[in-house]
Amino acid sequence: MKFPWLTSTDGQATAAGRLRWRMVGAMLLASAVPFVFLGSGAWLVFRRLAIEQTLASHRTMARAHAAALEVYLAEQLHTVELLARVVPREELQDPQRLQAVFDAMTSVHRDAFTDLGIIDASGAHLAYVGPYDLLGRDYSQADWFQAVMVRGSIVSDVFLGYRQVPHSVIAVRANSPAGPWIVRATLDNRGLHRLVRSLEVGTEGDVFLVNREGLYQTPARNGGVLEPSGILLPPPVPEVHDRRVRSNGKTLRQAMTWINDGQWLLVVQQPEEEILAPVNRAMLEGAVLALLALGLVGLVTVSLTSNLVRRVEAANRERDVMYQDLIRSAKLASLGEMATGLAHEINNPLAIISAEQTNLADQIRELNLPPALADGLMQSVARCKRQVSRCGEITAKMLQFGRKTETVLKATDLEPVLMDIGRLLERRARNQNVELRIEVPPNLPAAWLDPNELEQVIVNLVNNSLDAIQRGGTIKISAKPAGEAILLEVEDDGAGIPPENLDRVFQPFFTTKPVGKGTGLGLAVVYGIVRGWGGTIDVKSTVGKGTTMSLRIPTAPKENPSGA
Predict the structure, then answer these.
(1) What is the largest CA-CA distance in the chain?
(2) Which residues partner with 489 through β-bridges?
(3) Which of 134, 172, 334, 542 could form a disulfide with 84 if both were Cys (CB 3.0 to 4.6 A apart)?
(4) Residue 64 CA, distance from chain mean position
């Protein structure tokens, strides 16, 4: 790969090129050393961090999922408790009334309950709604029955019961004048299993419930409901436990927490091999990426160094431009002072000449000269008067160029000012068959300038355009927002300015007009006025196509809302 900017045209390395290479070498070394140390350290700790973060994620998931299951069980339990407290036993023993209540429950809690029954204190099933033949069954010896008679409510472990199907019941004891009785509902295993398995733990992970005997309460990858899980149960305390175990030839990471008043253990597990799979892939990819990164660092370093050098060169060019502007301003200031003094010195003899030609005219009229001689002398006096007047106009412009007048800047709406100037210049433009167009968009921000000076600037620029067009053409005055400034342009389709003269158009006394047609001070005055506003002026021109004068004028500062 070749970098032309590193060598001179004759193939010899320049001083700047050698400096660039030294900078590239230093930056590569500074980048490579930390990269090697950081890469080595990351290689050593990556595996440990991945396991720790995964375990922390498992603990968080177990805690959040346990809370969701507790809310689900509590919601179903509260539904049954509300039924036991609100609806009298006599109503619920009515099969039709019990069916209506069950239908209402399942319409609100879909996939929550499979049946509903009423049981008396002796364990007899008094009323039942569901798919099984359980009416009249005796539950006095059932574990859940004895527990609910003591505790008042229970969400039981999964068991087979009379129906010989794994299920779990929610039972609530209620009291009445005739004695205690029980409302019993069977949880729909589909809803519970779906909620437990809704937590996704990788592609080979598993989530399930076991009871205090270690029997599965929900299906798992390694066993069905009521099969022994082989899980080593942690202490029944309300916190998340995690451990590393071996099962079926695999190393598993488990996070466990107790729910349902310590009856069920929620287990979240994932094979360690799956946890470390991204780490192993990252290690392999990291070795490849490290090599690519080193190459990329080299290319980026070369690019950044080149960009840095270009910026330094751009800063140098900007410094040169500022220096040229300073030189120009100094020259303009010196020329302004010289022009002012010269104008004053010329004005004094011009005043004397003007007075003397008036005396000459009066004396010619008083002398009794032949008419032909008198007319000739009067014509000579008139020509002298016209030239004195022209000299006066020139010295007036010289005074205007050199005089430091006080500028009053204020927020100015450009549209009405430009329209007034257009009406002022319209007659001359019409006489030259030139179309004068003014384009100002609505809601243009106010400009920060002196309106009187703006009129002088636009008149000068339009007059120059009219002189360049001569006969037939278009002059467009336009304004539009440009960031924090307003771009005001005067564009014509006249003769244009040759490229060699573009850098000199703002110099005092430079003009391309014929002798006697211009002083060369108009654009110099415009330049000084615009810079006095804090703006800039630029010129673009193509010979035969026209010229565009672009003024960038600051917008008016926003008023302080506080009025301070």
Answers:
(1) 160
(2) 478, 550
(3) 172
(4) 35
The sign of the dihedral angle between the CA atoms of 150, 153, 155, 158 is: positive
- Options 2.40.30, 3.40.1350, 1.10.287, 1.20.58; CATH for 324-402 is 1.10.287
Q: What angle do CA 310, 21, 286 make, to 5 degrees?
A: 100
Helix (H) or strand (E) holding 331: helix 272-366
Cβ pair 500, 523 in contact under 8 A:
no
Q: Pick from 39, 4, 11: which is nearest to 283 by CA?
A: 39
| The pLDDT value given to residue 50 | 76
Instruction: Label the pairing between strands 153-155 and 485-492.
Output: unpaired
**Per-residue pLDDT at 563:** 38
Intervals of CATH 3.30.565.10 along the chain: 410-554
From CA 530, how far away is CA 488, in angstroms rounded? 11
User: Mean pLDDT in runs of 10 for the chain (564 residues)?
Assistant: 42 57 74 69 74 88 92 92 90 91 88 91 93 91 93 93 91 89 92 89 91 94 91 89 88 93 93 83 75 76 76 79 68 62 68 75 78 78 75 64 65 91 86 90 91 88 86 90 92 89 76 60 81 90 91 83 38
Could you give the CA distance from residue 147 to residue 149 in angstroms, rounded to a whole number?
5
Give the residue among 546, 378, 367, 526 at the shortest CA–CA distance from 460.
526
Helix (H) or strand (E) holding 126: strand 125-129
Retrieve residue 344's tokens. 């004053």
Strands annotated E in 272-420? 410-412
From-to residues of CATH 1.10.287 in the chain: 324-402
The closest alpha carbon to 174, from 102, 106, 107, 91, belongs to 91
Which amino acid is it at 367?
L
3-class secondary structure per residue, 386-451: HHHHHHHHHHHHHHHHHCCCCCCCEEECHHHHHHHHHHHHHHHHHHCCEEEEEECCCCCCCEEECH
* Contacts for 551-554: CB closer than 8 Å, 24+ residues apart: 551/457, 551/487, 551/488, 551/489, 551/490, 552/482, 552/485, 552/486, 552/487, 552/488, 553/447, 553/448, 553/449, 553/485, 553/486, 553/488, 554/447, 554/448, 554/449, 554/484, 554/485, 554/486
Instruction: Tell me the pairing of strands 536-542 and 485-492.
Output: unpaired
The residues, any chain, with a CB within 8 Å of residue 414's CB and separated by 6 or more, are: 440, 444, 446, 447, 454, 479, 486, 488
The closest of 488, 478, 537, 547 to 512, measured between CA atoms, is 547
- Record the tokens describing residue 210, joined without a space: 């076991």
What are the structure tokens assigned to 100, written together?
A: 């209506």
Residues paired with 228 in a beta bridge: 215
How big, in percent rounded to 5, are the helix, strand and coil portions of the chain? 50, 20, 25
Nearest to 51 by CA among 261, 270, 224: 270
Question: What's the DSSP call for residue 132?
Answer: S
Q: Which residues pair with 271 in a beta bridge?
A: 252
Coil, strand, or helix at residue 455? helix
Fold of 410-554: Heat Shock Protein 90 (3.30.565)
- Measure CA 548 to chain center: 36
